[in-house]
């Protein structure tokens, strides 16, 4: 069935592309591997790209304005490859911009069929392909900071990371550096690693959170999209803390969410879009940005953070963040 779906999707796109004529106008497509309203990360992605395009279009005549198309691919990851292939098969977008660690592996095979297509991929890493530019956020720092406050706040010294799925960045960076941060705060810290299996099942997320709470876990990091809402509900019911990733999440559960390590996705998506419009995209380059560059941060000024976290722990977090920013501490 998957092969039939892929074939028919690509065939339809090719037929459409045969009828469409490429104009001299620039055309940008945004591939959202999920649902915009369900994900702050994808919401910020689209906002930043739209801002850059609208800013440029103000300087252009109507017949030269940049065209922007946004495609929501949904939460079924098994369909992302076919949908991205279909988008590329239209052969009318100068660049496709997206954000997800899995995107380089999806894009590379597509380039064998459509070698002129260009991709800018955020929150991802791929170096050396002249059709792809990637920017990843320093998730070594982000994960370590999140683990460090979790280790400081945990009374049982048992933490958990509940992920939507396993993928290289999760297995090689986020999980191990979350654990390193927790153990740096308290050497007795241990981390349970559990998988939901998708990015949307809040019921499954709650079941997993309930299960780890029963074995004594009192701090949980959820990185599982829509399933995170189930984790939050469970944490509230079980008296656990939540550490949050990628955006300011304190308002989602005041008193339960004790930290927010954020990435400046809107600012970065604006930057890479403007860079592309100006013809300055460094194709083939994989860029990493972090705390020093101002694209990764740990929220310290939110009143809900100040209310939830004791002053001595806030001071330790502030000192660690400043040391990283000044280069005195390197997370690697």
Description:
With 332 residues, the chain is α/β, with parallel strands linked by helices. It has helices at 2-19, 40-57, 80-89, 103-113, 139-153, 168-185, 202-214, 228-238, 265-277, 303-308, 311-325, and strands at residues 27-32, 67-72, 95-99, 119-122, 132-137, 158-163, 190-195, 219-223, 241-246, 257-263, 286-289, 296-298. Helix 6 links the parallel strand 6 (158-163) and strand 7. Residues 1-7 and 10-22 have low confidence and may be disordered.
Order of strands across the biggest sheet? 2-1-3-4-5-11
Q: Which structural class matches the secondary elements?
A: alpha/beta
Helix-strand pattern, N to C?
A: HEHEHEHEEHEHEHEHEEHEEHH
Distance between the termini: 44 Å
Question: How would you briefly describe this protein structure?
Answer:
This protein is an alpha/beta fold.
Keywords, separated by commas or semicolons:
19% strand; 45% helix; 6-stranded mixed sheet; alpha/beta; 12 strands; 6-stranded parallel sheet; single chain
Secondary structure layout:
Layout: H1 2-19, E1 27-32, H2 40-57, E2 67-72, H3 80-89, E3 95-99, H4 103-113, E4 119-122, E5 132-137, H5 139-153, E6 158-163, H6 168-185, E7 190-195, H7 202-214, E8 219-223, H8 228-238, E9 241-246, E10 257-263, H9 265-277, E11 286-289, E12 296-298, H10 303-308, H11 311-325
Parallel strand pairs: 1-2, 1-3, 3-4, 4-5, 5-11, 6-7, 6-8, 8-9, 9-10
Antiparallel strand pairs: 10-12
Helix pairs in contact: 1-3, 2-9, 3-4, 5-6, 5-11, 7-8
């Amino acid at each position: 069935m998957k092969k039939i779906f892929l074939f028919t999707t690509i065939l339809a796109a090719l037929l459409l592309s045969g009828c469409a004529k490429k104009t001299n106008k620039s055309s940008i497509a945004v591939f959202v591997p999920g649902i915009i309203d369900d994900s702050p990360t994808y919401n910020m992605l689209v906002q930043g790209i739209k801002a850059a395009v609208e800013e440029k279009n103000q300087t252009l005549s109507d017949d030269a304005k940049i065209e922007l198309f946004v495609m929501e691919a949904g939460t079924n990851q098994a369909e992302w490859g076919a949908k991205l292939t279909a988008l590329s098969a239209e052969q009318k977008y100068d660049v496709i911009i997206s954000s997800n660690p899995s995107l380089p592996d999806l894009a590379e095979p597509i380039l064998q069929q459509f070698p002129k297509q260009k991709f800018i991929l955020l929150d991802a890493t791929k170096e050396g392909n002249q059709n792809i530019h990637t920017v990843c956020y320093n998730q070594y720092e982000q994960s370590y900071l999140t683990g460090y406050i979790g280790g400081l706040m945990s009374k049982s010294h048992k933490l958990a990371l509940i992920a939507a799925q396993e993928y290289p960045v999760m297995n090689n960076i986020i999980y191990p550096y979350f654990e390193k941060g927790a153990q740096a705060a308290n050497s007795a810290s241990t981390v349970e690693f559990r998988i939901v299996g998708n990015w949307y099942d809040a019921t499954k997320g709650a079941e997993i959170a309930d299960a780890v709470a029963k074995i004594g876990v009192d701090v949980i990091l959820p990185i599982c999209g829509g399933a995170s809402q189930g984790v939050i509900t469970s944490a509230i019911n079980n008296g656990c803390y939540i550490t949050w990733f990628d955006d300011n999440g304190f308002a989602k559960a005041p008193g339960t969410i004790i930290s927010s390590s954020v990435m400046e996705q809107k600012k970065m998506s604006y930057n890479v879009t403007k860079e592309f419009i100006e013809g300055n995209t460094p194709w083939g380059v994989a860029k990493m940005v972090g705390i020093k560059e101002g694209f990764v941060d740990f929220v310290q000024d939110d009143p809900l953070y100040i209310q939830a976290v004791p002053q001595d722990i806030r001071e330790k977090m502030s000192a660690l963040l400043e040391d990283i920013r000044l280069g005195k501490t390197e997370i690697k």
